[in-house]
Amino acid sequence: MTPTPMQIVETDRLILRRPQPQDLDAFTAYYATDRSATTAGPLDAPAAWKAFATELGHWQMRGFGMASVIEKASGTLIGRCGLWYPGGWPEPELGWTLYDGAERKGYATEAAIAMRSHAATVWGLPHLISIIALGNTRSEAVATRLGAQVESDWTSPAGRNARIWRHPKVSE
Amino acid sequence: MTADLTTARLTLRMPDARDHASYSAFFADAEASRFYGGPLLPYQAWERLAADIGHFMLKGFGRFVIEKDGQVIGGCGILDVDGWPGHELTWWLLPAARGQGIAQEASRAVLAWAGTELGWPRVETHFRDENTAARRLTESLGGTKQRRETFPDGIDRDIYAMPTTEKVSA
């Protein structure tokens, strides 16, 4: 398998790159807050460490994964965006999470559009889903801006209720 | 990338995506996996495998899988999860691989590797009081009790240390 380059996608305002060990602190801080409830949180520090290790292992196992999103202007790590396909998932999903203070700037949409194109052209996945927890209206708004539509209800293997959204197929 | 470890009968290598079936089989067995957070469903075993792979990327060491005659029969290595009191030598074996001294053979390879590659003079481990198999194995590797601690899950465990040198009392 060809190793994935460290930097994956660049947009006007963002760089998406593979997660690095130094990204753990921001990950743990996010999972310490109730904002993480829509992404299986909150998690204490040991559980967040395991979840972060799982994200790194996901890259190794699948050849893709959730990227760290860096704000170019500040160099700050502001969230995650990429493909998430752990065991028990129906197919790879396009996911996004912004950390505290990074919301309401259009970053999730900007990152997701870039990652969706990358998934189609580089990873051969042109017709992605997103799985959004019931009640996560902010993510639903992003999905709508991305042109995705609700496809079905879905319950995760851990019993969390969500909806599967289907993105428009990316044409070459 | 950590190089493979080899012993008379075994190869220890970093886990990868091929190992999902072995992890699922082990963690589906409630009896075999009871000291390892099991039983786990296949999707949870996938997460455990991914976390074991990520552990190597975060720490530079982790839990290898054990191959014998080309088949994965278990795992052995050192885990160090943030937030827990110290690292641990750990091993797991599929039921069919037990009773053949494999955990001890693999553990000796990991201890020697910790000494030469990580530069550690000793490796710690811990286990529940009722895990007598773990205590026997630890003692056979020269382990001695260091202290007792209450872990984040509320359970008290003895913490042992084993030397990484060749001088291991039988």
TrEMBL record, chain A:
PANTHER family according to UniProt: GNAT FAMILY, PUTATIVE (AFU_ORTHOLOGUE AFUA_3G00765)-RELATED-RELATED, N-ACETYLTRANSFERASE DOMAIN-CONTAINING PROTEIN
Pfam families: Acetyltransf_3
Domain N-acetyltransferase: 13-149
Keywords carried by this UniProt record: Transferase
Protein name according to UniProt: GNAT family N-acetyltransferase
Lineage: Bacteria, Pseudomonadati, Pseudomonadota, Alphaproteobacteria, Rhodobacterales
Example GO molecular function: acyltransferase activity, transferring groups other than amino-acyl groups
Gene3D superfamilies according to UniProt: 3.40.630.30
TrEMBL record, chain B:
InterPro entries named in the record: Acyl_CoA_acyltransferase, GNAT_dom, N-acetyltransferase
Record carries keyword Transferase: yes
Location of the N-acetyltransferase domain: 10-166
Keyword Acetylation annotated: no
GO terms assigned for molecular function: acyltransferase activity, transferring groups other than amino-acyl groups
Pfam families found in the cross-reference section: Acetyltransf_3 (PF13302)
Source species, domain of life: Bacteria
Keywords on record: Transferase
Protein's name according to its UniProt entry: GNAT family N-acetyltransferase
Native source species: Paracoccus aurantiacus
